[in-house]
């Protein structure tokens, strides 16, 4: 096992910067996830660590050893690709054994390791089959097994679950987590799936346009995003971003207004007429029903920090255990805000339809404020 450190890594292709000033260190034995939209540079970082790409500048260290000039085969890392990359003419056993043969491991020891890993991944009954005889999930486990059997210093996984169906992806994700808990091998995992990132990672590295946006523990990144990109990328449904104007201790959204909590005023020190973006996650929004009781909403929070807004229902999306509501803020004489969308969830027993005008409460104890120009969080 080993730590992995990137120090100001850049990669430029034909004058186009793919990744810029990438610096972070993955401690020995931890599971880190590189998360971001397609084209943000996740796979380029992973391939640079593996030695399949060469950094244009910067330094890469594995186990505190400079790796810039070390070829891929000597880096002692194992990479699992999105398309599995199994040898189609080889059996499962032969695929698992390939890396060991390259290392000239003794045949008896090789067989012991193959069977041990195959049992741990529940593929020991598939050893004599070829990849075309396997399901997608079985092929994925073989690809993981081929990496594990080598006992590398570092695992690199490039969207390994993206080709699996939803149920199998969930099952395999849980198996991956258990596997890491058992092996404790330093792992760097690339995905655009936030669920994978939140459930697997010790730390998440959020990327966009080749740059790091935020690094932190999953719950910290979720609750305290550095900027609007992180806020809206992490979370399903994403964080709502509402344009507000501050004036005399009051937030205005078009013609609707509510008091700005003292805590926010002290943290933000806003000026009159200042425009801000207020971020609020759907789980911190509640529907006000006919039997609305102030005492029953967030009783452990200050009621003064829960504010009312009027919205008009636009789309209803039943999700089984809850209903996702997409609504527009009811704003008159404020055309620039006329399309302000707000999303929240309601219990399935509550019946709503498009066009309904309803009231909702926002718990400002969980509000995040962004500068509309820089899109960075203010006062954090």
UniProtKB/TrEMBL annotation:
Keywords: ATP-binding, Nucleotide-binding, Transport. It comes from the Bacteria. The keyword Nucleotide-binding applies. One of its GO terms (biological process) is carbohydrate transport. GO terms for molecular function: ABC-type transporter activity; ATP binding; ATP hydrolysis activity. Residues 4-234 form the ABC transporter domain. One of its GO terms (cellular component) is ATP-binding cassette (ABC) transporter complex, substrate-binding subunit-containing. SMART domains: AAA. It holds the Pfam family OB_MalK. CDD domains: ABC_MalK_N (cd03301). This is ABC transporter family protein. It comes from Lyngbya aestuarii BL J. The lineage of its organism: Bacteria, Bacillati, Cyanobacteriota, Cyanophyceae, Oscillatoriophycideae.
